[in-house]
Amino acid sequence: MERTIFDMEHDMFRDSVRKFLQREVAPHVDRWHEQGIVDREVFRKAGEQGLCLMWADEKFGGLGLDDFRFEQILIEEIVNHGDPGFGLSLHSRLVGPYLGALGTPEQQSRFLPGCVSGETILGIAMSEPGTGSDVSGIRTRAEDMGDHYLLNGSKIYISNGINGDLFVVAARTVADQPHGLGLFLVERDMDGFTRGRNLKKMGLKAQDTAELFFDNVKVPKENVLGDPHKGFYYLMQFLAEERLIVATGCVAAAESALQTTIEYVKERHAFGQPIAAFQNTRFKLADMRTRIDVAQTFVDRLVMDHNAGKLSAEVAAEAKVFCSELEGWVTDECLQLHGGAGYMDEYRISRLYANARVSRIYAGSSEIMREIIARAMGLDPRQAHRG
Ligand SMILES: Cc1cc2nc3c(=O)[nH]c(=O)nc-3n(C[C@H](O)[C@H](O)[C@H](O)COP(=O)(O)OP(=O)(O)OC[C@H]3O[C@@H](n4cnc5c(N)ncnc54)[C@H](O)[C@@H]3O)c2cc1C
Fold it and tell me: Residue 364 Cα, ligand 1 centroid: separation in angstroms?
């Protein structure tokens, strides 16, 4: 189905991103997969190409490009011609905007140029060993000591956790209020800040995912983002875009799985005919084509809504749950159509399948997305969730 939201400028951008990925990312994907982390150099190369924090103001080296379609293209191309373990969108659109929206002019001029050039890699740390979905359960504490906050606690499953230089860390500033959180900018070399090992995962192998530890870390007041008691509300504010980013990647991965499978079933023969000739195969692929077109149309519409400042948290949750479950179903069915080959790491479908599993969990699980959608339908929420 023809997509209608892009114009010539976007097509040219897609072309240049593809060339960049083919040159700077594709040759390293297998090595990154094996080593469990991308070379941090690739962020700098993306920065040189103008691909980091494209929305940032020109005075910080950015392009001042707030049209989400450019980020959408980048996400899609990274899935198709790069590696989704390369956490560029997390850097640019999941974390960077906290600095853009909440940072003081001083914080912005201190940090944004490095983020735009790709020298300063960003991460966000909400999840903890004891809590993930329930943000109000965060136990990492930030105690007001006058000229600084004293940070104690730990975080888990943090993307860009090893490569990261600057983390937005959510910590409790009010002991007895579930929503009493602040956001703190923790820098790589701060005393008392350490990281655990790079966690081994079933998918997204090239992404470094780590634990972070804070042992009496002195965070100067200049590194507090916004109001130190409004962190919970800030987090909620940014989650709609996070869901759209994930949904965009899910549809791109589903499309990629479909394309690689179409090629495979035409080549592979059984019982004297291509696998593609079986009615089961054709019907399955036809169902996938249909559902992916529906999902893509939905996501494209939300991208335009987002550009117009009209993306709601609950509709973004609908997209996240629908597209992540679609990705799970498509990659599973496509793997089945590959037979034993699909289980082998060297086949693209095997990685797409393993990567897909986390889409239903991170950035708010499917269950939490359904809670948000139900709440917007007027059904009783009772407790606060991630979202
Ligand atoms: C690869 C990876 C990268 C990640 N990157 C980051 C990152 O960069 N930063 C970060 O902060 N976090 C990150 N996370 C953490 C991720 O956001 C959490 O894992 C996710 O929010 C779920 O939290 P949890 O793991 O604690 O599960 P839990 O909250 O313990 O949930 C366990 C199960 O219970 C269900 N459940 C929980 N509450 C309810 C409810 N009210 N109703 C129904 N069911 C419910 C959940 O849906 C889930 O199925 C990452 C995770 C992974 C796997």
Answer: 6
